[in-house]
Amino acid sequence: MSDVPFTIMLPLNEIVDALRPDVVSAVLAAKPRTIQRKSVSVAVLDASRQVASAFTRYEASVGTRDEARALKRLLVAASGTRTALKNLAKPI
User: Could you tell me the pTM of the whole model?
Assistant: First the structure.
């Protein structure tokens, strides 16, 4: 079996012109998504709970094979708390 090269000619300008009205109407009909955020106090409280949970897990896993994962989870939770506190200082 051998490969045979060939060329396909597509009328892209005609395709674009045919689709343009549908695309424009879809863009105009689309509603912007609203971003819903938690209140800052709720975000800080949730972040603090996650840190407490992660710290409890880390304490229980010291000296076991789960210690590295628990430490990583604790660091992620602490990072989330820091982000929530930054938003408290400057509410969005």
Answer: 0.54
